[in-house]
Design a protein that fits this description.
Strand order of the largest sheet: 4-1-5
Largest sheet: 3 strands, antiparallel
Helix content: 10-25%
Number of strands: 5
Radius of gyration: 25 Å
Distance between the termini: 66 Å
Shape: rod-shaped
């Protein structure tokens, strides 16, 4: 999960916890889920939103012939 760090923190680099990393305030990091949740809950970071301004979704529509109503006489 991409997190924008609000406060410089030393924390685990990966899920094993064997390496410590300095997460710098103002930077965005791709952090594993459990640590990302800690950053958010402690106010050390916020989830980074995915930029969608460059994405364009096109929906193609197709004209279907209209059904003719049956005469009921």
């Amino acid at each position: 999960m991409k997190i924008k760090v609000l406060k410089t923190i030393f924390a685990s680099k990966d899920e094993t916890g064997t390496k410590i990393f300095e997460y710098q305030a103002g930077e965005v990091y791709d952090i594993y889920q459990e640590l990302a949740e800690v950053f958010i809950s402690q106010g050390w970071g916020v989830a980074e939103e995915i930029e969608t301004q460059d994405l364009e979704i096109r929906i193609e529509t197709q004209d279907f012939p209209k059904k003719k109503k049956k005469d009921v006489n």
